[in-house]
Predict the 3D structure of the following.
Amino acid sequence: NSPLVVREAGALAGRILKASKQDSARMDAAYVSILDRRPDADEIDKGLSYIQSLRRKWGDIDEAKAWQSFCHALMASNEFIYVY
């Protein structure tokens, strides 16, 4: 939750939004950029559900805010933080 992580999540969200108009392609880009792997079908479904829930919660918001939140969540995941 540091300013660095928030800033980088926002920057990545901006790049993802510019790269594609399709949410599934955006989801794939987020996983590849952050975790260096493609998401499986279940992860795509859960990620898209998360984005949709933020859209419902916040109404007509800046789309970047929802994607920034998702990128921030991936950056807070154990898979990102710890080396296995």
About this structure: DSSP finds five helices and no strands in the chain.
